[in-house]
Amino acid sequence: MSLKRVAITGMGAVSPYGIGVEALYQSMKLGRSAVTRYPALEAVKGLRCHIAGAVPELDAKQIPRKHRRSMSRMSIFSMLASMEALDMAGITPEMRQNTQTGVIIGTTVGSPQTQQDFFAEFLQEYSIEQVKSSLFFKIMGHTCAANVALALGISGRVMAPSAACATGVQAVGLGYEAIALGQQRIVLCGGSEELHPLTVAIFDIVNAASTGYNFDPARSPRPFDKDRDGTVCSEGCGIIILESLESALDRGASIFGEIIGFASTLDTTNISKPDPASIERCMSLALDNAGIRPDQVEYVNAHATATLLGDSAECLAIERIFGNRVPVSSFKGHFGHSLAGSGALETIVLLRMMEENLCLPTLNLEQPGADCDMVGHVMQPQSRSINTAIKNNFALGGINVSLVLRKYA
Amino acid sequence: MTQQEIIEIVNNSLAEEFELEPEDMKPEAHLYKDLGLDSLDAVDLVIVLEQAFSRKLRDEKAIQKIQTLGDLYAFIEEKQKEMG
After folding, report:
1. Residue B81's pLDDT band (boundaries 50, 70, 90)?
2. Of the candidates B18, B19, B47, which has its C-beta nearest A130's C-beta?
3. What does pLDDT average to over chain A?
4. pLDDT for A163-219, tens place per residue?
5. Which of B44, B56, B58 sits opposite A132 (nearest CB)?
């Protein structure tokens, strides 16, 4: 059975820079940080990280009430990003209303704000009398995927991988496999996250959140840097439209790149501490899946969230496969770590970079730490043709995911 | 509470919850066919009215038979009278 080639024909983004792929990419090109002080975090007892990347106010009313009523913030992000991606791809309502078109969008946990609202009433009054009908649809694990699919009338596969910080890239990988196998023709893939103190707390509790830059937020997170002190949470959603290459060519769609390899593995050594050998294995499997050698890779988009352990483990793994030859950067320094949203958002920036022959640096990386110094860090924007790239995302819980992308030619 | 006050409270509550246009909110307007509500909205409608009138309505049998806004006004008016 021959596998189909998988093209990328649309992208959509809601990020801490605002709505739209260009708001994201152009801000990053300017080297702007989207991390700011976030007052809601200061009120939480014991929470030491007070900075975050929040999505600016947006107009959700462009989504009809009938669909919006069951959407929390993360599903609204997903919907707006999906609308942009569909528009970019030129996908008609008729193409959506087809069992060959699917949606794979995951999140870390169903809307934490909605859960807070429920438990605030439940714990105080021990009552459900004021709970509205939309509760379940906002907190269910497949809230983003189902809401988007229903609102857009997409009737094929609807799935919602949940792999914390690796969710978005895992969703893209699952879409890639479904199309390669001929089981779907078009899949909207991505991940979404809404900022909540719970999310920040998860990292702070395990001493993985940035706490030393509360009064200088734009300087953190600092992936790979000697002064990095942990991650900074953010929110948003990235959506990538995957389509079989033959379908994209048949309808004359613009093609922004191809997915050519994917691997998802588990680091069995520890539920939270990253292991270089496991990361190395994941990247190697993705390269095998793509049928390419390490020397054919021209850029590594790192997961690097600016934690002490994670960045160094990833650098060790990158060095073992690529030496210090391949340029490496992480986008967490620009807009923080949007967890489930990060994979697709970062992939979108990578695709735009490949299109423009530009290599963006790791923002806030001023001097690599001695434990991260062994790879080819991108410290300044570089004009550089990138034909093949690998993109990493790793998650608490031990999940490692790598994706291989290629410029379409 | 006068009938007019009841109508105003009901209309304001429903307009806000379901983003309805005031000009569509006529007594003969059918909740489902004309105003576009559905069974999930019906659940929320009861909650919104309970909050607006500070009384339990969910288990009222008569609420199941309401079809138009006019039915709703009459139902609330009847309940208010029962309360005295």
Report:
1. confident
2. B47
3. 97
4. 999 999 999 999 999 999 999 999 999 999 999 999 999 999 999 999 999 999 999
5. B44
Q: For residue B76, give every residue at least 6 positions away whose Cβ sits within 8 Å of its Cβ, in sequence order, or none.
A: B6, B10, B49, B53
CB A62 within 8 A of CB A394: no
Closest alpha carbon to A393 in A349, A331, A343, A337: A343
Higher pLDDT, A54 or B59: A54
Report, as residue numbers or ranges, the catalytic residues of B.
Answer: 38
What is the rounded CA–CA span in Å between residue A266 and residue A170? 12
Tell me how far the alpha carbon of residue B11 is from its chain's centroid.
7
Q: Is the dihedral of CA B10, B15, B16, B18 positive or negative?
A: positive
Taking contacts as CB-CB distances below 8 angstroms, the residues of chain A near B50 are 129
- The answer to whether the CB of B52 falls within 8 A of the CB of B9 is yes
The catalytic residue among A144, A165, A237, A359 is A165
- Whether A337 is a known active-site residue: answer yes
For residue A132, list chain B residues with Cβ-Cβ distance below 8 A: 43-44, 47
* A372, two tokens: 């991260």
CB burial of residue A389 (10 Å; 0-12, 13-18, 19+): buried
Place of tokens 């993985």: A208
Q: For the residues A147-157, what does the mean pLDDT come to?
A: 98
CA distances to A117, A130, B83 from B56, rounded to whole Å, are 21, 11, 12
| Amino acid (1-letter code) at residue A34 | A
The model scores a pTM over 0.90: yes
Q: Closest Cα to residue A49, out of A237, A206, A226?
A: A206
A245: amino acid identity, one letter: L
